[in-house]
TrEMBL record:
It is found in: Cell membrane. SUPFAM superfamilies: Pili subunits. This is Peptidase M48 domain-containing protein. Keywords: Cell membrane, Hydrolase, Membrane, Metal-binding, Metalloprotease, Protease, Transmembrane, Transmembrane helix, Zinc. Belongs to the peptidase M48 family. The keyword Membrane applies. GO terms for biological process: proteolysis. Pfam families: Peptidase_M48. It is a multi-pass membrane protein. Its cofactor is Zn(2+).
Length: 348
């Protein structure tokens, strides 16, 4: 069973094509520079090592979900993988998150993982809420979001477009979660769990919460969201309702000036919104190091070529006296040229 492409947000497909073209050009430009390729490889190795070390920490300190360990979570993950057309369930670990309510999917080469923070499990008041959250993360894997994450890294640094692509993927994953949960209300309340915790989510008025989305077009809220990787939770609930009721998506019009300042405002807000600016700063630092080194390398190569030419002349049998004679002829010619230039000036 393959992944159902109808779950994918149409806007995500368009942004993916733009991202593939831009990232392909960016990686090509990097490869043609030997120094750039070296630094790119070092950055790639650093990211790979950091991810491997993080997963080593999770596997050593977290609780691995299995048929014997947290069987209800294992059953939810297995059902989500089957429902979404993923070939085999991912490895799932539960770790202590210090009160944070979150979950995420990741991978290392061909191995796929879903990490659930323990407080999130505790806050889910209904099994279908957990099914939605698990389906959301498995949806990222089934939709291939992590398969292209490294290749599309340059595109994620593009203001507006990179963040828009990330938000589109979140809407796609929410659709996956809704299909796995099979219940619109509990899927919406699962998002409310992320917003305010399980007790509030069970008592909150969904209509009042979704009404908040009309305020997201204001200057400050729009400026922040335009540089964020995740849409506002109230907007995600509205999107689920529209998908469930087969309604056309009616977005909130954003303040025009928010588009102009969103990269700066998002960076000042910190968190995921600051990641593109941080990455750009890192690239600038690396370029400041790489470019001077590359220029020095070219200079050394040029001098090395001149030294080789002198060595070849010596090898050809030119004696020291012959070289001195050639140097004297050169000096005489320079003096003649200088004298001719002076005479030309006087004639004017």
């Amino acid at each position: 069973m393959a992944f159902d492409s109808s779950l994918q947000l149409p806007r995500e497909r368009t942004l993916f094509k733009l991202g593939a073209v831009f990232s392909g050009l960016a990686w090509t430009a990097l490869v043609v520079s030997i120094v750039g390729l070296l630094y790119g490889a070092l950055i790639g190795l650093f990211v790979l090592a950091a991810r491997a070390l993080f997963l080593a920490h999770v596997r050593g300190n977290g609780v691995r979900v299995s048929e014997r360990q947290l069987p209800e979570v294992h059953a939810s993950v297995k059902a989500a993988a089957e429902r979404l057309g993923l070939d085999g369930a991912p490895e799932v670990y539960v770790v202590q998150g210090g009160g944070a309510l979150n979950a995420f999917a990741t991978r290392l080469f061909s191995r796929r993982f879903v990490i659930l923070l323990s407080d999130l499990l505790d806050q889910c008041q209904d099994p279908r809420q957990l099914d939605f959250l698990v389906g959301h993360e498995v949806g990222h894997l089934a939709a291939g979001h992590l398969r292209w994450s490294t290749f599309l890294l340059p595109f994620h640094l593009v203001p507006w477009l990179g963040a828009a692509y990330s938000r589109a993927r979140e809407y796609t994953a929410d659709r996956c979660g809704l299909r796995v949960a099979g219940d619109l209300e509990q899927a919406a309340r699962a998002l409310l769990v992320l917003a305010a915790g399980g007790r509030v989510a069970s008592r909150a008025d969904l209509g009042a919460f979704t009404a908040q989305h009309s305020e997201t077009g204001g200057f400050w809220m729009a400026a922040l969201e335009l540089s964020a990787t995740h849409p506002y939770l109230c907007k995600r609930v509205v999107a689920l309702q529209q998908v469930s009721q087969a309604q056309a998506s009616a977005g909130v019009r954003r303040h025009p000036l928010a588009w102009l300042v969103s990269p700066v405002v998002g960076g000042l807000a910190g968190g995921p919104a600051a990641a593109p600016l941080f990455a750009v700063a890192m690239i600038g630092i690396l370029a400041a190091i790489a470019i001077p080194n590359f220029l020095r390398y070219q200079e050394r190569a040029r001098h090395g070529g001149q030294a080789a030419a002198v060595g070849e002349a010596s090898a050809a049998g030119i004696t020291a006296e012959e070289r001195a004679s050639l140097e004297w002829v050169k000096q005489v010619r320079l003096q003649i040229e200088q004298r001719e230039r002076q005479n030309a000036k006087r004639a004017r």
